[in-house]
């Protein structure tokens, strides 16, 4: 399901499920949650730890590292843990599965059909003591996940995020010195435009990087030159890259962007890779599960972007 530039796979603030953050190199906890979300979605049956360890091994994670990650995920309440004889089993908890479903819908719908823009910005202004660094970090992480960017240190802006949702985050974090506004940009005299809160130059490079990296793979998929093992690794990698974008580019309105904005082209490449590798990737998952859980292997499945988007959008973000 990259660099820790977003709290990806983190649900909203109400009763939130603190899912592992995406980081460079797909750390084991994040990797295991991603694999379960992508190939074990909707399945109630837990999987033996040995199968999950072998899955993680496809990505270079050691058995020791994978088992430690599973144990930590269980302690955090993200995975359900059970033991039958000498065998240990893990599965997604109901709350984790719901959070992952909402996150997956958000990530896979990103850039598909940007909604029309009413010309209004949501502005979150707040003041926090410098010594409350933990609170400042939490607030910034949640604001970025909601689609905000900092215009100034204590003023964040978003052209998309509902004011009610923004206010709820501030309330949940018990930040009393804050206000939320909905406003139009009237003018500026030598100051920053609101869109300048978003680093469009860097964002353009990131979109271009995805296109450059994965466009050749699109051709290889069409020519049948990708193995099941490579498909599993590459599909997880492209999802990790794409997942970073919603917090950096909250479907910024076309009215605010250059005419050659590469979001649409990047989404096309992502979609072709993610969907095109799905059938091969799930074969590899089934092969690995068959070594430890042959009776469960056929339950592994993959979903396409169209299948996810055809389902009703889950509640929350």
What are the key terms here?
48% helix, four-stranded antiparallel beta sheet, disordered N terminus, Alpha-Beta Plaits, 11 helices, 317 residues, alpha+beta, globular
Strand content: 5-15%
Spans of at least 5 consecutive residues whose pLDDT stays below 50 are 1-25
Distance between the termini: 16 Å
Q: What best-fitting shape do the alpha-carbon axes yield?
A: globular
> Largest beta sheet, briefly?
4 strands, antiparallel
Helix content: 40-55%
Question: From the structure provided, what is the oligomeric state, counting identical versus distinct chains?
Answer: single chain
Report on this structure:
- This protein has helices at 28-39, 49-57, 63-75, 94-109, 133-146, 163-172, 200-222, 228-243, 245-248, 263-292, 305-310, and strands at 47-48, 79-84, 87-92, 121-126, 149-152, 155-158, 178-183.
- With 317 residues, the protein is α+β, with helices and mostly antiparallel strands.
- The chain starts with 27 loop residues before the first helix and ends in a 7-residue tail after the last helix.
- It is built from eleven helices and seven strands.
- It is 48% helix and 11% strand.
- The longest helix is centred in the last third of the chain and has 30 residues, at 263-292.
- Residues 1-25 have low confidence and may be disordered.
- Among the domains are: 121-183, 2-Layer Sandwich (Alpha-Beta Plaits); 199-285, no CATH class.
């Amino acid at each position: 399901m990259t660099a820790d530039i977003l709290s990806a796979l983190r649900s909203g603030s109400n009763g939130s499920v603190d899912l592992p953050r995406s980081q460079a190199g797909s750390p084991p906890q994040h990797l295991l949650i991603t694999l379960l979300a992508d190939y074990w979605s909707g399945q109630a049956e837990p999987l033996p730890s040995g199968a999950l360890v072998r899955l993680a091994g496809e990505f270079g994670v050691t058995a020791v590292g994978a088992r430690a990650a599973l144990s930590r995920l269980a302690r955090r309440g993200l995975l359900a843990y059970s033991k039958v004889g000498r065998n240990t089993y893990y599965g997604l908890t109901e709350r984790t599965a719901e959070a992952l479903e909402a996150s997956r819908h958000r990530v896979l719908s990103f850039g598909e059909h940007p909604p029309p823009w009413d010309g209004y910005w949501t502005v979150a202004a707040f003041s926090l003591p410098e010594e409350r660094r933990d609170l400042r970090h939490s607030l910034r992480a949640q604001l970025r996940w909601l689609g905000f960017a900092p215009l100034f240190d204590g003023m964040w802006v978003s052209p998309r995020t509902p004011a009610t949702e923004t206010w709820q985050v501030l309330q949940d974090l018990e930040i009393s010195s804050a206000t939320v506004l909905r406003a139009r940009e009237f003018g500026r005299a030598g100051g920053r435009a609101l869109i300048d809160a978003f680093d469009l130059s860097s964002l353009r490079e990131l979109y271009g990087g995805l296109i450059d990296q994965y466009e050749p793979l699109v051709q290889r998929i069409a020519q049948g030159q990708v193995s099941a093992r490579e498909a599993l690794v590459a599909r997880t990698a492209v999802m990790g890259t794409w997942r970073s974008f919603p917090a950096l580019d909250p479907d910024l309105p076309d009215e605010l962007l250059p005419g050659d904005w590469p979001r649409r082209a990047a989404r096309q490449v992502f979609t072709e890779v993610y969907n095109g590798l799905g059938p091969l990737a799930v074969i590899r998952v089934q092969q690995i599960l068959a070594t430890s859980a042959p009776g469960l292997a056929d339950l592994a499945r993959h979903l396409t972007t169209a299948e996810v988007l055809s389902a009703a959008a889950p509640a929350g973000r």
